Amino acid sequence: MSPPEPAYKRVLLKLSGEALMGDQSYGIDPAVATRIARDIADIQGMGVETAIVIGGGNIFRGVAASARGMDRATADYMGMLATVINAMALQDALEKEGVFTRVLSAIEMKEVCEPFIRRRAMRHLEKGRVVIFAAGTGNPYFSTDTAAALRAMEIKAEAILKATRVEGIYDADPEQVPDARFFSAISYREVLSQNLKVMDATAISLCMDNGMPIVVFNMNRAGNIKRVVLGERVGSKVTPA
Questions:
Q1: Which are the contacts of 241, defined by CB distance < 8 A and separation ≥ 6?
Q2: Which residues have CB under 8 Å from 88's CB, separation 6+?
């Protein structure tokens, strides 16, 4: 019996920096990075071309530093550098699982990673390598959510897989509100009008304008990435209607 066909051939996985912390209050838990890498290796082994955008909130959060008086552009650049650290940690974990991986940074630092060049990124994906996009968009005032939406369009991904700590999209934080309403499917406009914290408004608008589906799912359940890629009903899906 042949293995099931994936529903998506090329995806962009959006990870928060906090996803790498595990139960720690700061930094990177190598065991968590290894678990994530194994899940990614599973879908890579199915022939799914995988790109990743990772945040930096486990090391430095630009918006928070800006709120405490630091210049916003400076704080955002520092946050971008934090994402490069996370990208290198995830690259290391993936390569220990035997997955060829390239880090492409929007801020050039050729000693540690490649510069982001769209055609180069596409070529890496076609050759079966995981591509990790670091340093956000390379511009301050834009979140890594927006970077994920932008890169997904640029590489012609079929969906954005947004990894979270909860089962999907709710009308309130389910960790704080036990009876929060769960949405298995929701439109971009509903996300914006209800101000749901799926991704920031810029990212949602960009996805809406380009018809990019977003699947929001619980990253902490092993195998969930594979289930999403196979088209199983996991988490919440954001679509035009």
A1: 187
A2: 103, 112, 113, 134
Task: Give the model confidence (pLDDT) of 214-228 as tens digits.
Answer: 999 999 998 999 999
* Polymer length in residues for the chain: 241
Closest CA to 62 of 119, 127, 137: 137
Q: In the structure encoding, which two tokens stand for residue 153, read together? A: 């369009």
Burial string for 82-99 (b: 16+ CB within 10 Å, else e) reads bbbbbbbbbbebbeebeb
* Cα 215 to Cα 112: distance, rounded to the nearest angstrom: 31
Find the distance separating the first CA and the last CA of the chain, reported in whole Å. Answer: 36
CA distance linking residue 183 with residue 171, whole number of Å? 8
Per the CB < 8 A criterion, the answer to whether 129 and 101 are in contact is yes
**pLDDT tens profile 156-212:** 999 999 999 899 999 999 989 999 999 999 999 999 999 998 999 999 999 999 999
Domain residue ranges in the chain:
10-239
Q: How far apart are CA 99 and CA 47, in angstroms?
A: 12
User: What pTM value is reported for the model?
Assistant: 0.95
DSSP secondary structure string, 53-71? EE--TTT--HHHHHHTTS-
CA distance linking residue 178 with residue 199, whole number of Å: 21
How many angstroms separate the CA atoms of 233 and 209, rounded? 25
CATH number of 10-239: 3.40.1160.10
